[in-house]
Amino acid sequence: QVTHNKSSKRCDVCAAAACEPENLMVVCSKCSSSAHQRCYGLSDVAPLPFVCDRCKRSPNGVQVRNALSG
Known about the structure:
Elements: E1 2-3, E2 25-27, E3 34-36, H1 37-40, H2 53-57
Antiparallel strand pairs: 1-2, 2-3
């Protein structure tokens, strides 16, 4: 999921909720962790469901809670 405007979600990296058109908030579709694309190191975001790196590495697709913050 990609959030294009301010939402109730906070970035798990910087803790800010605000986002800008060039720095969108991405939310993992498996663990619901969220981060600004810049905080996560993404130059572009696709309109596809976002899955964080930790969930991608998770065996059998097990959901990991709050994967982006640790």
